[in-house]
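Before going further, it is useful to explain how the protein records used in this thesis are read. An example of such a record is reproduced below.

***
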Amino acid sequence: MIYPAKTFDFPKVPFVFIRHGETDANKAEIIAGSSEPPLNNAGREQARAIAPLMAMAKWQAVYVSPQDRARKTAELVLPDYDLHILDGLRERHWGDLEGRPIAEAGSRFDTPPNGEGFDAMCQRVSFAMQTALAEVSDRLTVVVAHSGVGRCILYMTGFDAEGPRIANATPILFRPVGTGWEYENLTEDLIREISA
């Protein structure tokens, strides 16, 4: 398979990424894309469950997809923060495949009929991340968005876009190391390390 060239300008600063909590579409393994399924009960509980961990640190800013499931997750996880909405963090538009089983999606790098190509999505995610990370000081930025945005971030930081999806409501710390990147689930120990 030939992958598109990685021509994205991605800031080399650490940040935390959170995929929104579970929706019924996630549970049923249905492509939600640009549609607006709300968080289900499990998704709301997932978001509330990580709020105490996220409250352990002082964050620079919280940037969020304009879609309801991401905004609601951010409100539950970080209730004391102003949310900065970035349109470039919205989920991929899957065109004719929206509402279809995820198994029908095919390769990440195929453009779905009447939908958005992966390269085009990653270009807008790259621009959104440049905006979100432009003024990082001694505190980290939090980005709350979608599985597809997480895949673009993985791809732009040198990892496999075709691997498993990032789990719902799981904070992931991304940070540059040497000429590359590393990422891992955020823990209390990591929060103490990055807050020192």
Q: What stands out?
A: DSSP finds six helices and six strands in the chain.
